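Quick one, tokens below. Sequence please?
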């Protein structure tokens, strides 16, 4: 699939996932209450740490399976898939052990309010089982991605999101809510992985994950690549999970809700932008293998420009209409969510373009130093979040995320990537930023004009404003693309 089609497929699926998430978050909170929802968010965040055991093998499966498939080395392909599956099988056992330990320690994790500790324990076990099954199934998901069938993978994501929506609306009630939510997550994960296994086998009929295919040499090769991608993945996960856990422990479970709402909104927008990097990875690897440095720089500049434009557009929209949107979406009682949204959205303007450079570095096999940079950022995030939460509350946690990201990624990762990829930083930044300026100026003017009308909360106003902003972006980008052609025509 082409870059445009691959990204479009991922975005379309994420649009479905995002729409479901937009509806479910306020629905779940209103159904089970803010205290129950805070407990669910906290349990989910703790369970999420188990995903650190993925150990970076997701990228390994994608890279090595794609390589073996291109060379039609089916035995080697099966050795990679079987070896990683074996590693994940052991890790899945570790996940269940950790989940059982957390379930036993649940009373020591703080006051759960009116949520029964027995429900908390069952939910932790169900979420642990959910992660364990997802871990094993992810091997087949990696195989499917390696075949570049982003359309199939995205379709599965969309179907699963709709299934989760239907099951939640059908079965969720306040009594036993955590258990019901945990069971729903587990059920859709089983369905998702069953479909993924079937499609992976359709795409590669020779795929066979068996103990007899495990090869020590292949496993050692996979481990050597995965070591630093795992370190990087662990650091990223720690950054994503730390904030809610810190707030939940220090300020209480309910205090995490306003922060989590803003964080989820940013994640819903940033996730489709990160998909650009997922598509860039295999293409960048191919260009690097062919020695196409200029082509690689052009690919990175195009993808980074797209990430910068859309993340900056989200920031502008958040500044002007974020408070109105949050009130429409979740109600008026989430104090602090708006400011947190602005801080986290501003961080994405730096983070999203640099995700492309991270993927380009991965594509050329440079994963060691970027992993160390990520670890430094995770440590700084943790320390600053704990420090700032005691001074400024939940907004301080947002600043504890913002400052390390901007300073470490902007002043350390970017210069390193420029040197490693042999890119000219001035030329690259000019290609990434300058073409987007007229578009962003037009969007800012539109938002300023709409704000003078003082639109109130409501989905109708949100939809109209978003449609208008989309039209301004499309028109501005179209004019930007058309202008060089007109200049060429006039010159001719």
């Amino acid at each position: 699939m082409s870059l445009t089609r691959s990204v479009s497929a991922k975005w379309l699926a994420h649009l479905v996932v995002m729409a479901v998430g937009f509806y479910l978050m306020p629905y779940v909170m209103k159904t089970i209450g803010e205290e129950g929802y805070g407990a669910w968010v906290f349990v989910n965040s703790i369970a999420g740490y188990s995903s650190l055991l993925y150990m970076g093998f997701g990228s390994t499966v994608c890279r090595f399976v794609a390589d073996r498939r291109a060379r039609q080395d089916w035995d080697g392909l099966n050795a990679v898939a079987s070896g990683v599956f074996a590693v994940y099988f052991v890790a899945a056992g570790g996940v269940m052990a950790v989940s059982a330990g957390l379930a036993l320690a649940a009373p020591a994790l703080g006051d759960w309010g009116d949520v029964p500790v027995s429900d908390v324990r069952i939910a932790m076990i169900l979420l642990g089982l959910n992660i364990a099954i997802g871990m094993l199934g992810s091997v087949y998901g990696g195989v499917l991605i390696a075949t570049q069938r982003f359309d199939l993978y995205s379709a599965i994501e969309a179907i699963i999101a709709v299934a989760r929506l239907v099951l939640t609306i059908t079965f969720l009630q306040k009594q036993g809510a955590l258990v019901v939510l945990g069971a729903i997550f587990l059920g859709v994960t089983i369905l998702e992985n069953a479909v993924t296994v079937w499609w992976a086998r359709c795409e590669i009929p020779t795929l066979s994950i068996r103990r007899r295919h495990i090869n020590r040499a292949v496993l050692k090769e996979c481990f050597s690549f995965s070591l630093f991608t795992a370190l990087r993945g662990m650091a990223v996960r720690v950054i994503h999970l730390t904030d809610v856990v810190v707030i939940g422990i220090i300020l209480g479970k309910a205090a995490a809700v306003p922060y989590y709402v803003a964080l989820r909104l940013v994640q819903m927008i940033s996730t489709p932008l990160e998909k650009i990097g997922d598509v860039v990875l295999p293409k960048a690897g191919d260009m690097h293998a062919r020695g196409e440095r200029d082509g690689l720089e052009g690919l990175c500049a195009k993808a980074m420009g797209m990430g910068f434009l859309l993340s900056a557009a989200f920031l502008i929209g958040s500044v002007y209409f974020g408070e109105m949107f949050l009130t429409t979406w979740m109600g008026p009682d989430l104090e602090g969510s708006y400011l947190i949204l602005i801080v986290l959205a501003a961080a994405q303007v730096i983070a999203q373009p640099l995700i492309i450079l991270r993927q380009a570095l991965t594509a050329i096999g440079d994963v060691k130093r970027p992993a160390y940079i990520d670890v430094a950022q995770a440590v700084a995030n943790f320390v600053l979040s704990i420090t700032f939460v005691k001074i400024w509350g939940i907004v301080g946690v947002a600043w504890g995320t913002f400052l390390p990201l901007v300073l470490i990624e902007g002043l350390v990762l970017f210069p390193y990537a420029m040197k490693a990829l042999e890119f000219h930083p001035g030329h690259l930044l000019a290609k990434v930023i300058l073409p987007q300026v007229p578009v962003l100026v037009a969007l800012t003017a539109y938002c300023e004009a709409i704000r003078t009308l003082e639109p109130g909360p409501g989905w109708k106003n949100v939809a109209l404003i978003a449609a208008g902003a989309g039209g301004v972006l499309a028109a501005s980008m179209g004019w930007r693309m058309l202008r060089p052609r007109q200049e060429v025509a006039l010159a001719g």
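Residues 484-492 have pLDDT under 50 and may be disordered. The chain has two domains: 1-214, 245-492.
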